[in-house]
Amino acid sequence: MIELSNVSLRRKNRLILSGINWTVKDGEHWVLYGRNGAGKTMLLEIICGYLFPTEGELVRFGKHHGEYDIRELRKRIGYISTFLKGMFSGRERVVDVVTSGLFGSVGLWCEPESDDRESARRLLASIGMGNRENDRFGELSDGEQGKVLILRALINDPRLLLLDEPSKGLDFGSREDLLLALETLSKRQSTSIVLVTHHTEEITPLFGRIMVLHEGRPLFTGGVAECVEQRVFQRVFDNRVRVVECEGRYHTILSTKEYAPEDRTD
User: What is the structure's pLDDT at 264?
Assistant: First the structure.
């Protein structure tokens, strides 16, 4: 579905990304992990066509760059960025925010068909928000707004959903509600998901694959369990953390001592 071969990105003589080799197949759910400034968001923007790689090859849905209309490409990719939430008016009705995803617009600029709004209502009902359809977007909590934006991205039934730190700024309960909603929606739609995060706690069992970026380069690409076994997270943080698994989730703990590579993780 998405194939990146030796992709690099340079901006103002600074190398942002280098040596990215990554394939996302239909039905796979990936975590894109890395510290702040690792290049995660820019990698997503390359996939969406908002940025163009300086070097390397990128194939989207079997087509190389220049073989498709970029506007049509973006209809097949649902992208939720960190700045999207602030673009919507707080007075917009929740059902209209979801419906606007069909048109790729911020807000509705024309009257949608009744079937379009009904599709939005079904999505809202699927995550227990059917009774909020006529509420104003600004009346929702941050977590609820995040879930509505995920529905907006999914209403076009995209093949790929890119989530750039969707739980940023949420409290623990709101974060868990959002992750649960994501898991519920994944069972209803065959869309592949890429979740950007720098918190191991957000890596739920839904995600079986992970790419770890470190200083713009891929440090690890493979299974989540293998990533933990190879102590990749510790390498990202210079062995200053421990990663503890509990009930299928991974929790990062700041260590008071440095752990040698041969030390075992609790």
Answer: 45
